Amino acid sequence: MKIAIIGAGAIGLLFSYYLNQKHEVTLYTRTSDQAEMIQSRGIHLIDGGLSEVGKVTAKPIELWVGAEDLTIITVKQYQLQSILPQMSEYSEGKGTLLFLQNGMGHLKLLSDLKVENIYLGSVEHGAARLNGNTVSHNGHGVTRTSVFKGNKTLLENLVRTCPEGFQLTLEPDFQEILVKKLIVNAVINPLTAAFRVENGTLIRNPFFYQIVIQLFDEVAKVLHLKDKDDHFGNVVSVCEKTSTNRSSMLKDIEAGRETEVDSILGYLLEEAQNKQMTAPLIYNYYQLIKGIEYQKEGSV
Amino acid sequence: MKIAIIGAGAIGLLFSYYLNQKHEVTLYTRTSDQAEMIQSRGIHLIDGGLSEVGKVTAKPIELWVGAEDLTIITVKQYQLQSILPQMSEYSEGKGTLLFLQNGMGHLKLLSDLKVENIYLGSVEHGAARLNGNTVSHNGHGVTRTSVFKGNKTLLENLVRTCPEGFQLTLEPDFQEILVKKLIVNAVINPLTAAFRVENGTLIRNPFFYQIVIQLFDEVAKVLHLKDKDDHFGNVVSVCEKTSTNRSSMLKDIEAGRETEVDSILGYLLEEAQNKQMTAPLIYNYYQLIKGIEYQKEGSV
Fold it and tell me: Which Gene3D superfamilies does this chain map to (chains A, B) (predicted)?
């Protein structure tokens, strides 16, 4: 089928490279420079010792008019606001969108969207954008997807046709897959960014591990988690499997970029407020990451 | 009078340099190398653009036998355990000691000490040891002292004879002066060390400032503070006055040295436990600083 991919960060490049093997992908980028670069040189995928190049059609985002069967939105959650009006305008009640953002803050935006089918996904790959047309595939995971509204026809098609080494799964409950990822992101991302350490250090350093437990407990309380032990086991397992990785939030902090803290801890703070709960650790790490971002802006 | 000063860190060097102007000081050092260096070259004091040298008698700690009228103990709180037996052995119910440690964890050790007079003090000078016989006097404050047990004769003498630029005050309540310093240390030290910023950044960065408020509130709760606003004003005022200083805990962290977190946040955690209160922020920053120390040891 014809697939549009919005956003040429690590996830956008990764999905474009793989899905183009089975589908006709057009990658929409923020700048026309990047579109030209990808159009002329292809996407370079680095995977361990291997280096591959895949040809992909690329265009600047302004040219997206909903012409493809499925559009996959890979931009950060805080960038959604600026592209959703365009999605709405051209969809006019039709069309199919798959959102791959971290966190859960975007769900309330999607409810208002006049689109026929909306899918949600959670990406468990490790990937880093090395430059405008190069992505490093650091960890092979799966992409869990689910239906948010509408029918699942296109999603089933996508899951059935996923290329080798790039598995997609179709799950019954979108809340569940997003919550699972949210918890991992809420614990690992802020702590690694605050301590400036790799993921594995959170469980190897016995003092940092106490903070992992403390923050996880608070997140579990705010989310009214029933299967708490499973989720904690999942956090530890992600730390183990991605032991030498630097989390996306740590990488954002090191590069002086805006982080996704609003869609992760910011969302949990809102949840706590709605439920009239105090969440001192979540509040503390929200302010801490915001404070580091503020320092990087050179405002102090 | 004859004064012994135990410990040749920043505070030990500073007190030796100034008090020797009016008294006969012997400075006791941990290593005989440092004693020889100070004995032969004197103490170099750097104060703004000025550089002065003061001759002081220096000996290794093993030679202390309580021969002086007053002994001032300037070592860190966590080093007290190793020297108190020596103090006890030679004092035999007589003698006069002045303790200048941060925190309040050492008070329970002092109650058991068989010494006639025990004084406590809180140093509000900014000072940094540059090498074994050089100290930089970065901020001129006062040293607040008070009687813990015994009579105040020698302390009054010391306060009356303090040299110019090095004021000592005699205060009625030792709890009050230690609590005031403890609060400042409990908020400014761990946060500057965790964020790796100068003292002033804590109040200039609006997000870090929220954490200052959050941690201070918890400290105030644990200590059952009555004059909360005054103490908060004092914390802010210290951040302003020492705006470009790096706190002692930050300097310890940067130099890979053990910090005083046990005598500061560790003490507050015990207090919280005794009062059956939860103190999530204090717990968090205690573990965080311990975790950074652990990383520096190269254990991970």
Answer: N-(1-d-carboxylethyl)-l-norvaline Dehydrogenase, domain 2, NAD(P)-binding Rossmann-like Domain
